[in-house]
């Protein structure tokens, strides 16, 4: 592929900054970053776009995960098995990423986002406080299943992964939005790392672009995590609804051919 111009790198950096902020609060920064990479690197292979996106994303998730961990102190009995299975799932997804057409995912993701967004809007009390629905081994199994399933999706494609982690931790397991965001960042860090370990030996990462976007993603991730922690669960819930609604419009437009 051709080397990107300085202007293109600057625009990709701005996209990564915004993606880092969104990702740190509720997840889904890939739905900003991936389209930007597709536009900015039109001659790149799909696996190069996915791999470069993962490197940029892990920079932001590293900072936001550390910020959440210091401020929220999530329970390791949940986030460690969640991270472990998310890592395994992401590695498996990344291994088959080049064989799965993007078109096969978009209708499924759109339906999932509509259901997720509608459920959160119709249940205003959802995620206001932590009220766990499972205990003991059932809680552990729910965390592991969540990590494996969403991790596989993230390795194979990825957009909206953080939002799916947040919603599942809130809707299925009973965490508050703020607690769920903290655990989602840690799990998303693990999925990004696993995908990078699969993609890097293939020489798929465009390092010039990845480094620039990674630096910008760090700034966005730090500001997003601090904002979420300072403003609390209600802010995260409202931001979640806004972001999911925007994703529905964007992906829905692609499925219906409105943006082509």
TrEMBL record:
It is found in: Cell membrane. It comes from Nocardioides aquiterrae. The keyword Cell membrane applies. It is a multi-pass membrane protein. The keyword Transmembrane helix applies. Signal peptide: none annotated. It comes from the Bacteria. It holds the Pfam family TauE. Its main location: membrane. This is Probable membrane transporter protein. The chain crosses the membrane at residues 48-67, 79-98, 104-122, 159-178, 190-215, 235-259. Keywords: Cell membrane, Membrane, Transmembrane, Transmembrane helix, Transport. InterPro entries: TM_pro_TauE-like, TSUP. Belongs to the 4-toluene sulfonate uptake permease (TSUP) (TC 2.A.102) family.
């Amino acid at each position: 592929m051709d080397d990107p111009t300085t202007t293109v790198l600057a625009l990709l950096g701005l996209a990564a900054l915004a993606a880092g902020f969104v990702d740190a609060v509720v997840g889904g920064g890939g739905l900003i970053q991936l389209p930007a990479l597709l536009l900015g690197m039109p001659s790149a292979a799909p696996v190069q776009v996915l791999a470069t996106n993962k490197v940029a994303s892990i920079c932001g998730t590293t900072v936001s995960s550390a910020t959440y961990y210091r401020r929220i102190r999530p329970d390791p009995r949940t986030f460690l098995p969640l991270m472990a299975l998310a890592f395994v799932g992401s590695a498996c997804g990344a291994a088959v990423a080049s064989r799965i057409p993007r078109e096969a995912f978009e209708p499924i993701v759109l339906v999932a986002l509509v259901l997720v967004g509608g459920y959160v809007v119709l249940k205003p009390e959802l995620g206001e406080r932590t009220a766990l629905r499972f205990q003991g081994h059932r809680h552990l199994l729910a965390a592991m299943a969540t990590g494996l399933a969403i991790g596989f999706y993230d390795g194979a494609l990825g957009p909206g992964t953080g939002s799916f982690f947040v919603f599942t931790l809130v809707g299925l397991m009973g965490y508050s939005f703020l607690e769920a965001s903290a655990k989602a960042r840690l799990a998303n860090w693990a999925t990004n790392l696993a995908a990078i370990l699969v993609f890097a030996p293939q020489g798929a990462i465009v390092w010039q672009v990845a480094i620039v976007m990674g630096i910008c993603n760090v700034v966005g991730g730090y500001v997003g995590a601090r904002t979420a922690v300072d403003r609390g669960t209600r802010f995260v819930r409202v931001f979640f609804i806004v972001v999911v609604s925007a994703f529905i419009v964007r992906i829905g437009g692609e499925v219906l051919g409105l943006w082509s």
